[in-house]
Amino acid sequence: MQSKKKSLEIETLRGLACLLLVLYHVIGPLGGGLKIDLGSPFRVLADSMVYVRMPLFTFISGYIYSIYKIRGNDFSAYCTGKVRRLIVPLFFVGVPFSVLQAVAPGVNKDVGLIQALLSFYVPVNHFWFLQAVFIIFMFVGFLQWRGLLQTTTRLYLLFLFSAVAFLLPPFAVDAFGINGAFYLLPFFVTGMICHEKVAVIKQSLKVIGPVVFVLISIALLYIAAVDRELIVDRRSLVGLLVGCASCVALLSSDMRSKALIWLGGYSYAIFLFHVLFAASSRFAFGRLGIADDSILVIGGVLCGLLGPVLLSNVFSRFALTSVLFLGERATGKKTPTPELKVSQS
Where are the transmembrane segments (predicted)? Predict the structure, then answer.
């Protein structure tokens, strides 16, 4: 098992997850974002990410959770920390963003004001991840606190349970992101298992792992280009297998990148605010009469990545804004947390 030192390969994967997330939301789903039509290479790229993007984010969360997992009888403090980290930004970033989306002219997504005000309960934007991963942290943390995850065998049993739940039909009402929690749980548990077996994985898969990921990527790109309907269903057996295999393969590559490590240090801010900056760039380019897809995508990705970095540095300077908008501790002290990043809490 690794020590609690900062893992450069995990920070690199965190930065990669940020890049994939922002790129997807800049391009957008069919009819959203830049409204790029079928047949475009950017549409193919966006559709091919569906089995890797959020699974990778969640896999990293599970891996880091295993480093800083709850121990002893501090479950109440653990819960308080997760509320501060995930639920406070949900109310002070997620709900206002949804309201802004509901009242602002020219947005791609039709969100009603009442729906926006209730988005803390039934998610309508990418903030569903906060609700879903909060449920996962409460569930896994409780099991850990009760001593039910002491062995790797029990982790495998938890993965089996999560895989069955993943394949079940979703609930009619996605109350507090419960459907998202069932979707993400297998990847979270995979991250936990991989932390326990990381040395073996890196040793045994150091050659074949990267090759497998390249082959998966090529296959996904081809399928997305030929028939996107075969690839957009995330909650399927193929989605489960491809998502888990991709995450394990990426971990085995032991990839290091200074640029991605730097981005990974701001992953939570990027997750929270990237859509705001990406949408602003789209509006600005539109006012300038720029219509070239390549410029719009590259400009949107740069704004979606760098804008939140600047905002994070501003918010972190003040106790109130760091708590409300970043979920950090009121003291401003940076301590490791497992939600979306290690280097900042």
Answer: 12-30, 50-68, 88-107, 127-143, 155-172, 178-195, 207-225, 237-253, 260-283, 295-315
DSSP string, 182-225: HHHHHHHHHHHHHHHTHHHHHHHSTTHHHHHHHHHHHHHHHHHH
CB 309 within 8 A of CB 270: yes
Cα distances from 266 to residues 4, 9, 317, 338, 344, in angstroms, run 19, 16, 15, 13, 8
On whether residue 126 sits in a domain, the answer given is: yes
Residue 342, pLDDT score: 39
**Tokens 């990148």 label which residue?**
257
Domain that holds residue 245: 8-326
CB-based contacts of 271, cutoff 8 Å, min separation 6: 18, 21, 57, 126, 129, 340
Number of folded domains that form the chain: 1
Question: Which residue in 296, 219, 284, 228 sits closest to 27, CA to CA?
Answer: 296
- CA 97 – CA 109 distance, rounded (Å): 12
* CB within 8 Å of 43: residues ≥ 6 apart: 27, 30, 36, 37, 224, 228
Half-sphere exposure of 336 (CA within 13 A, CB side): 14
Percent of the chain's residues with pLDDT above 70: 91
> Which contiguous run of DSSP H or E holds residue 51?
none
Q: What does the pLDDT read at residue 252?
A: 94
Please state whether the predicted TM-score (pTM) of the whole model is above 0.85. yes
Residue among 235, 230, 228, 261 nearest 27 (CA): 228
Determine the residue type at 173.
V
Q: Is residue 342 part of a domain?
A: no
- Determine phi and psi for 106, rounding to 5 degrees: 80, 15
Residue 334 belongs to a domain: no
Look over the chain and give the mean of its residue pLDDT values, rounded to a whole number. Answer: 89
**pLDDT for 66-109, tens place per residue?**
988 776 668 999 999 999 999 999 999 999 999 988 887 656 56
The answer to whether position 344 is within a domain reads no
Q: Which uninterrupted H or E stretch holds 24?
A: helix 8-27
200: amino acid identity, one letter: V
The stretch 298-308 carries a mean pLDDT of 97
